[in-house]
Amino acid sequence: MLLKRIAPQLIALAALVLLVTLVYPGFLDISFNDGRLVGPVVDVLKRGAPVALLAVGMTLVIATRGIDLSVGTTMAICGAVAAWAIASGWGLAPALLLALAAGGIAGLWNGLLVAVVGIQPFVATLILMTMGRGIAQLITEGRILTFNHPGFAFFGSGTILGLPVPAWLWLLTGAGVALLMRRSALGMLIEATGINRRASALAGVNATVLLIAVYVASGLCAALAGIVVTADIRGADANNSGLWLELDAILAVVIGGNSLLGGRFSILAALLGALIIQTIDTGILLAGFPSEYNLVIKAALVLVILVLQSPRIAAEWRIWRKSQRASREALAERSRT
Amino acid sequence: MKTRTLLGTTAALMISTTAAMAEGETVGFAQIGSESGWRAAETALTKQQAEERGIDLRFSDAQQKQENQIAAIRSFIAQGIDAILLAPVVATGWDSVLEEAQEAEIPVVLLDRQVDSSDELYLTAVGSNLVHEGEVAGEWLVNAVGDQECRIVELQGTTGSTPAIDRKTGFENVIAGHDNMEIVRSQTGDFTRAQGKEVMESFLQAENGGKDICALYAHNDDMAVGAIQAIREAGLAPGKDILIVSIDGVPDIFKAMADGEANATVELTPNMAGPAFDALEAYWADGTAPEKFIQTESRLFTQDDDPMGEYETRKGLGY
């Protein structure tokens, strides 16, 4: 059942890995150097962390028929808050808590606008998307706020059991949220709200609280992503941190076969979507094409994957196969008589 | 009419007078805004230069809008000042306001960027030559490696942007004559630290863990700073195992050079006002008309040029 749901994403990922291996034969090589795994696949797991983390929150928001355009900006704010706290000597734990709090507040703001004020999610989150980068720039005073703190940098470039910390972060966040959704009724309630908010409210679901909660969850995921990116370069770059990543996150959710109209969702499939996007990105870099081709290749591959997943194409394909079989059988029938 | 008066008033309000010496000439500076650290440093240095020379500088911040710059210039003309410095936000649409300045016999000096208007409408333009910057970086690397085989990786700026194209061209011009040097990988890092680091990681993967790379050329310092971290995390010594040369001269690259992790940077000087004031002083003295383009020096800094001292002088400039 689960395998059938994620089969298209698994096939797409496998085909993509095959394709990248053809242009860059060493893609699947993994070696073990002074306590850490090294290789392009490990890079994919590490570099895919921001989009994968964002995709977890984005899946929940999209399941309620919403969208969160502000996550890239929220990353910049949370990164700036964390870097500022570290640079002013607050220490690691307060810095992380402050960054998560900033993400939570950003999510709460979006959630209130959507669930209580009743603004359409696209517009409501667009407000923070536009405004937030300015907030981040105010915190960093327009500069790249750098710091030197090995404990914080660990979240960007450290390793646990050989695997990069950013990879652990998204694996654990994804698994944790997915389990929470499926082991409790939360996932079903979110789907119900997404399919018909009024009907689920009449059935006793507290849709308002649920809606606010998914935006807060999205904000917290963005905070984690912001921490990873900031810790990685040991500096908060308010102008560029998380720039356009909201679009990659939405793409990951969509490649994961989740409908933008809300309802049924799969976090696992969205994470596979994030891996597909990162495999494309890393593959392009390794292949060594001129950079003018980067975006064109990425768009072409995404298009192919989405077209192959399209239900209409799949239905046409089934009808075509059925008619082929029918005509073959008719032919065999005729030759027999 | 009403809007124009309104614009004029806002512009006048925005103009602040910096510390002035009464006997000096008065110069108006129509700055673009403060969109980047470099721009902030340019503003800081212009004020500093004016103060040193006893020039009364009137400063206007246009907040990235051409109409604010035009309004500021008109109000400078109305005040009858002695010269105008203009860092044009866009290239087009300056003809009429430059003509007004010419009629009022106020010389205009362009800083950093060019305009599409006839060069008779301004006294001179001060700016850097981006191709030359690439050449200076290339020449440093040619001297540093000598006759050794050198496989170079390149971190380009934003694809299609003028600095990326010109800095690439300049570097390639110099490398072309040396068969022992070859650019083996070249990718865009979008002028950012994060992209610089990510792309450098893939270069290291693709080139035998970085052992086959002799040097890195980055189109700006920020990408180089990101790449340095990637090299360090791959277990190599940046600045020794892989030579690093980049362009801009921002404070953090001087810190990296002081730590021995970067080798050279070509400065894009934010001091455009110094040469501009030199030209103006000569013009005021005996009417000498300067060349129509004054190229600022693209100075090369290496680890021998007191990088720690350079870092200290730069970090307060607003980069």
From TrEMBL, chain A:
It is a multi-pass membrane protein. Keywords: Cell membrane, Membrane, Transmembrane, Transmembrane helix. The chain crosses the membrane at residues 49-67, 79-102, 108-132, 144-163, 202-231, 243-261, 268-289, 295-315. The keyword Transmembrane helix applies. Coiled coil: none annotated. It is found in: Cell membrane. GO terms for cellular component: plasma membrane. GO terms for molecular function: transmembrane transporter activity. This is ABC transporter permease. It comes from Paracoccus alkanivorans.
From TrEMBL, chain B:
Residues 30-272 form the Periplasmic binding protein domain. GO terms for molecular function: carbohydrate binding. It is found in: Cell envelope. Keywords: Signal. Pfam families: Peripla_BP_4 (PF13407). Belongs to the bacterial solute-binding protein 2 family. This is Sugar ABC transporter substrate-binding protein. It comes from Paracoccus alkanivorans.
